[in-house]
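SEVERITY: medium
COMPONENT: batch folding queue
REPORTER: lab tech (J.R.)

DESCRIPTION
The queue accepted two submissions in a row. Attaching both inputs and their returned structure tokens so the on-call engineer can compare them side by side.

ATTACHMENT 1
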Amino acid sequence: MISKWRPAGIKFGVFMLAVFTGLGAPRGWGQTTGNIAANATLGGQTYVAAPLASTSSAQNPFLGSISSGKAVPGTLQLSIDDAIERGLRFNLGALLSEQSSESARGARWQALSHLLPHVNAGVTETDQQINLEALGFPPSLITRFPGFPVIVGPFTTFDARASLTAPLLDLHSLHQVHAASDDVRAAAYSYQDARNTVVLAVGNAYLLANAAQARVQSAQAELNTAQALYQQAVDRLHAGLSPEIDELRAEVELKSQQEQLLTAQNAFDTDKLNLARIIGLPSGQQFALSSETPYSPLQGVTIQQALAEAYQNRPDYKAALVQVRAAEQARRAALDERLPSVSFNSNFGDIGLTPGNSHETFGVSGTLNIPIFQGGRVRGDLIQANAQLKQSQDQLQNLKGQIDYDVRTALLNLKTAAGQVNVARTNIELAHRTLQQARDRFAAGVTDNIEVVEAQEAVANADEAYISSLYQHNLAKVSLAQALGVANRAVMQYLGGR
């Protein structure tokens, strides 16, 4: 019977079989047995793969979202375009990545502040009373001159002043600004990569829900067939044409199909909840999947073209290139700590006993700072900068190889999945023809209903194989779009859904 080989929660098992053993895990998804998860880097922290069903959004933000609005009455028709659009707007991973980009912009302004003039202004009015002896006047001097005050004051001092401090030559700070600017560009590319990861997460969740819906429809059709065959077995038993074992066998198959329908419906409802969680639908919002993802071969993509497109479009590759430049600038900044720096300082103000009894004063100075010995700080900064540069260069080289692997694997998976779909479609036709012939033979009394039950299982197996292979094929296309770095704009073109 089908229940002997198709366990509950088959959606996860199918994903593991299809992606991790057959198709290969797409970039950004981790290999976690029986579950689905995404990887991405936000603000320097990598969120590793974790089970979708048991991992919270606090552990993996791409599994969470910011819910917007309230549930509306009725059933919302949700297309895959709508789901991806909502995911890009409300998925927690995308939102956190956006804020990481903003944080990089703030760090750049902090670095830039060391090169920009600093202007301050203030007004001070002070009441003072001074003990001259406490300030160092010797008692002998005070006693030598009768009437010389020991305590002076109280008196008031008024001072209104503006000051300007401006660096004139500071190569260390200049290269730090260049490094921070590169970090801003890298963060922007990382945000684009996070959006591609969101597209992959939402696309996979929608495809899983679509496959689960197809399993519900298949289970319902198989249940209808099992009901008809059970009634046929009962009629033949009452007519004395079949033994009771045929009726019992048909009833067992009917109960099994009822169980399969319940399992399939629960899996479908769970997948819909997962999809709603990823895209930020309001709690309790009823929705239906309105997009179909039929079999649509992807033609005209060669390895050479795909690799060229990936190196041109992959945001993570662009971010890695910029991070190498940022590390080079940071190394230059560390080297420049040994160089002299020049700064300009000035102040202008009005000082006196009162605002009406005051006079303008000013001060202008230029400072040349020559580092002589800084306790090994420059050497330590340079060692760290060299290590960071080497790490960035190694990561870039690794990413080049990873891109080549991702693209080649995605194309191989796509080709294999397309062949699986074609075989599964043919097998469905054969299985249905076999079932029809078995039913005819049973109705004619040529054989018992063992053949019919086996044919029913063959039909169920063929339907499941087609649903799984279609899911694998569509996921392979989404993975290819992710591998090329164009998931954000090309996934619908690749899926060819409606």
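ATTACHMENT 2
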Amino acid sequence: MNIWDILILAAVAIAVFFALRKVWKNKRSGGCGCGCEGCTKSAGCQTKK
């Protein structure tokens, strides 16, 4: 592996980490992770804008 391979793998690992963190935070807060328009849970949404 050369340095470019390592940098690409590190960038992918960081992107996966932040994506999983967002999914985990949304599950903990009860949110659906998307905008309120067209959301089936919009009537009972507790998010603050």
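NOTES FROM REPORTER
The CA atoms of residues 7 and 13 lie 10 Å apart.
No errors were logged for either attachment.
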